[in-house]
User: Fold this.
Amino acid sequence: MTSPVNSPTASRIAHSQHHGASPEYAVVLAHVSKTYVTASEATTRRALIDVSVQIPKGQIVAIIGPSGCGKTTFLRLLTGEHAPDAGGSIAVLGVNPASSPATLRAHIGYVPQHYLLSRQLTVWDALHFVASLYDVPYRGRQERLEGILHSVRLERREHGHKLPRQLSGGQLRRLALACALVHEPDLVIADEPTAGLDPVTRKEIWDHFRDMRDHRPSRTFLVATQHLDEVEHCDLVLMFKAGRVVYYGPPPGLLRLAVGGYALVVEVERPDAVKAFSALQTLPIVRDIRTSARFPGVLYLTVDLESTSSSEGNQTMIANGAQSRTTIDAGEACRALVLAKLKESGFTNPQVVLQAPSYDEAFSILTK
Assistant:
């Protein structure tokens, strides 16, 4: 029997990483839809509608959206558990997941929301069990497993003998992550791995994701989460609503989509408010300026992040699924441009404060 890690499809995956179509992307979907038919075939439900997205290798991507929006269906399509409707195409690591799902899974690590292995297996036995499932060679296996436990801060000497009931919730999640990394996957899919954890433990889990990615820069993480503040830990955000992608790009762009940009509060001396108003009107990034009779020396600005992107040059955004890393925080870039314009106009000590909405606020706006 051919081992999944040594099969012809595995060879194609390895080849695609260097020579195949779209080698820079871990996941490519083109016009993908998914329709579920009820058992009686009397009704249908469209879980995904015309989804096109390209996920570059080496990225940490947050998958967000309200319940029933299509997140789970999206992930199931990537693993080959479900097949898309006719007319769309999916490539995961250069391979159609529907054609060879079992073999493709040998290159995917899955982190469930809850620990799924036997509660009778110790930490060390659980890793060995998973290693056997993936035909990890016995020679060198011990060193590999000890290294993985070290990377998730579950040292074998201290935790290897423990049963799951002897671990905390955070330690169980770290064990699940360790199990997902045993076969050194190229793509890691995590289904709400921080659900129910305290903020400190949640941060530790995200630190592990970044450490794993930094250790192997081509490794890609897709992380479904309901904690909207966690998108700040990611390179990209993929947001679904009613089966459609409503946003795909760096985290700051999600705020812009929701509220049209960032809010800046500018404070100058009261007699100079009109002069500041006139100066800032000429700045391309400024979408709107409002004043307040209650605070005559204060101006309220709405700034356009896309204009900032083109103006600054250093800060790039995702457009139509094309990848580029954000190198300057967009809100701070806006603030810097406004401050520079005021100083250029003769203001010696203007105060410019960035008031960005939270990701929870943005989520609420976009899911209404």
